[in-house]
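Lab notebook page, bench 4
Experiment: in silico fold of construct C2
Operator: M.H.
Input chain length: 271 residues
Purpose: comparison with the prior construct
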Amino acid sequence: MEFFTARNALDAGDLPALTAVLDEHPDVVRFRCRQGEWYERGYFAGAMLLHHVAGNPIRCQLPVNIVEVTRLLLERGADPNATCGKGGRVVGLLLTSRQASEAGVALPLVELLIEAGAQADLDRPDVLDDPLWNQAPATAEALIRRGSPMALRHAAALGRLDLMAELIGSADQDVREEALLLATVRGQLDSARILVSHGARGDKIGRRGPATALHEAANRGFPQIVALLLEHGADATVLDTRFGGTAEEWAEYGRPEDLPAMRALFGQRPS
């Protein structure tokens, strides 16, 4: 099938081969794939060629010339606002892409898509949330350098203790709890220490759900943060809203090598 020939050329960064397929089969940029792994269900179902430039999901290594590959697809009529799955767009895939973040190409690609007509607001107050929740901190840093706004939760997630000191005094309890949750997701122990010293506990369900900071720390393998939250009174009996599990039960599905330490911490908590 021409789609897979084009996709393989895209994956390899082979511009001449990709150009040849597009010359012979120009409609391939508008084809939606619904057969095979990745394409039948989930957020990548029905993906088009352009969706592949984000490296999200991770199928293979992104080619070093992915910007040039993307430019070629756009020049050949790829829709920068095309959706896949349940409405996800290429910009969204890029902002949440670990691969694009680590390669430093997420923001250049987003800007290229915007130039081509993609609908994206990089100045909205929550634009940093997606990369920070999705192992793409370099993308968040690039957005900040561009001028995207930072809130307390973003500063906490990035370990920006200087900015936290400026913002924390005016933050209410809910804002501090949300900042603690995102700091925990990013494994930022120093940020967590500051937040608990200002009254955050880590046992509140976040606005994105379904878990508390204590759940996330237990699941992601951050025993120092677990210990910190328990020492400052986090309620370990709180259940998440998706599976109905405690933080200790979430540790069961985290990293196996951390489980003994996690069990010991929860076993030592005050009754």
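Observations: The beta strands are 83-84, 88-89. The two ends are 63 Å apart (CA to CA).
Next step: discuss at group meeting.
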